[in-house]
Amino acid sequence: MGIIIALISGALMSFQGVFNTELTKSSSTWVANIWVQFTALLVCLAAWAVTGRPGFDGLMRTDSKLYLTGGIIGAFITLTVIQSMSALGPAKAVMLIVVSQLLVAYLIEVLGWFGVEKKGFDVMKFIGMALAIAGIVIFKWKD
């Protein structure tokens, strides 16, 4: 089930990136970003109302207050996705975004950052990432 959800997530990110980039053409990057974050807030509030209402006080009990910055990071994710898709097109931008996600996520696992269980370095995973980077080079070769 996790694989299916991850595939859906990737597809939704691609759609959202294109939609957000197109939205900036009739407004601006920051206006589009505000709209995206605002509509996401509305959806989350509706889902929270339907699925249950645990209090917001639990947020303050998090192990690290650093984890409260996810929304700030989200605003910059939206901004950078819009800018990269505008500059590179959806396919190239998404390839670079995914490889960047993979590299950083693997580094977080190997180093055990942010409370993630530390995992040892795996040569096969490193080779897989090198192949992904080689794929980007091949994909971009004729441009």
Number of strands: 0
The total domain count is 2
**pLDDT < 50 runs, ≥5 residues:** none
Assign an overall shape. globular
Percent helix: over 70%
CA-atom Rg in angstroms? 18 Å
What is the end-to-end distance?
A: 37 Å
Average pLDDT reading: 90
Main sheet characteristics: none
Range of strand content: under 5%
Compressed to H and E, one letter per element, the order equals HHHHH
Determine the number of helices (DSSP H or I, runs of at least 4 residues).
5
Sheet/helix structural class: mainly alpha
Description:
By secondary structure, this protein is an all-alpha fold. It contains five helices and no strands. It has helices at residues 2-24, 29-51, 70-88, 90-111, 123-140. The model has no long low-confidence stretch (mean pLDDT 90).
Give the gist of this structure:
The chain has 143 residues and is mainly alpha-helical.
Please render the helix and strand layout as text.
Layout: H1 2-24, H2 29-51, H3 70-88, H4 90-111, H5 123-140
Helix pairs in contact: 1-2, 1-3, 2-3, 3-4, 4-5
Task: Summarize this structure as a short list of keywords or feature phrases.
2 domains; 143 residues; mainly alpha
